[in-house]
């Protein structure tokens, strides 16, 4: 009897090879040939599952984001059935920081994509219209009088992410800064 192939697992396996190459040397190292070698599959298989190199890169990014969202949902679920908005928002913002090895690797890969998007207008155009779901979620969790600060909180977390990845700041200090902002935003009025 022929062996059943789990196509989604195969796509994730190939995407993980892209992630390893991107984290180690940037997306320039993620050529079809190098990804195939890293994944231990023929190059034809990459083209079968993803198409062009551009589609491979974007498909791998999509899978990375899905994986990160699933992990974030698990950590948020651990807060309990109805966490208060401040605790939930804190958890969302901490997902943007490389506080453990899994998130560190994911953020390194995202940094490689960021550099590539800055240099490649065609790739940048394909993600330009991404909906601002995270910003909308952060705004909904903020007290009504502070909803306009959602962009600032996300930009601040992104800046802290870079500082942590470079080793210029400790995780403890980054979390402390997030908590300070949340304390300010959730302080009782008056």
TrEMBL record:
Pfam families: TetR_C_6, TetR_N. Keywords: DNA-binding, Repressor, Transcription, Transcription regulation. PROSITE patterns: HTH_TETR_2 (PS50977). Residues 31-50 bind DNA. InterPro entries: BetI_C, Homeodomain-like_sf, HTH_TetR, Tet_transcr_reg_TetR-rel_C_sf. Residues 8-68 form the HTH tetR-type domain. Gene3D superfamilies: Tetracycline Repressor, domain 2. This is TetR/AcrR family transcriptional regulator. It comes from Kineococcus glutinatus.
